[in-house]
Amino acid sequence: MIRAVALVVLAAGLAACGSKAPLKPAPGKELPVAAYGEDHRPTAEELLQPPVQAAPERSVELRRRSEEREDDPFDIPPEG
């Protein structure tokens, strides 16, 4: 039991120690080349930012209370 607790504490301690330094390519490696037609090579920070299409912003307002639904002309009962 004590070994399990010690193992969990050790794992949590190791998981908590992380580097806060800016990202750099591994030794001997380079960042990807600039895309065709681009004039500059993207930095590590630019590569980490998701494009707008990957995380679009919500363009509609959420409903805050129940509202009566409008009549839907395509909502027909099933045949049978």
Structure summary:
With about 80 residues, the chain is mainly alpha-helical.
- Share of residues in helices: 25-40%
Percentage beta strand:
under 5%
Q: Distance between the terminal alpha carbons, to the nearest Å?
A: 64 Å
Would you report the number of β strands?
0
| Count of separate DSSP helical elements | 2
* Molecular shape: flat
Query: What is the H/E string?
Result: HH
Q: Any low-confidence stretches, pLDDT <50, length ≥5?
A: none
Question: Which value, in Å, is the CA radius of gyration?
Answer: 26 Å
Quaternary structure state of the chains depicted: single chain
Mean pLDDT: 80
Major sheet size, sense and barrel closure: none
Please identify the structural class as seen in this structure.
mainly alpha
Notable characteristics:
single chain, 80 residues, mainly alpha, flat
Please give a structural write-up.
It is a single chain. The protein has 80 residues and is mainly α. It is built from 2 helices and no strands. The protein has helices at 2-16, 44-48. The chain is flat. The chain starts with a helix and ends in a 32-residue tail after the last helix. The model has no long low-confidence stretch (mean pLDDT 80).
Q: Topology of this protein?
A:
Layout: H1 2-16, H2 44-48
